[in-house]
Amino acid sequence: xxxxxxxxxxxxxxxxxxxxxxxxxxxxxxxxxxxxxxxxxxxxxxxxxxxxxxxxxxxxxxxxxxxxxxxxxxxxxxxxxxxxx
Length: 85
Fold this sequence. Notes:
The protein has 85 residues and is mainly α. The protein is built from four helices and no strands. It has helices spanning 2-16, 19-28, 36-56, 59-82. Helix 3 (36-56) packs antiparallel against helix 4 (59-82). 18% of the residues are buried.
């Protein structure tokens, strides 16, 4: 039970960690200091974790990493939208 709670806490905080950065970029409409490659790597990582969770039928892994994929994908989108070409 304690291991499950620890896993859920870790998943929740890992999932929401990117949200302050996403909100800041949207608010300031500036993404020049954001590393695109970091977020691409995160997308590959959490996408892979999501597929792993699906293969293992592990809902906490699926939900937290699926949401992380959406949030990091949003960051990539706003980076592309607000970066100067």
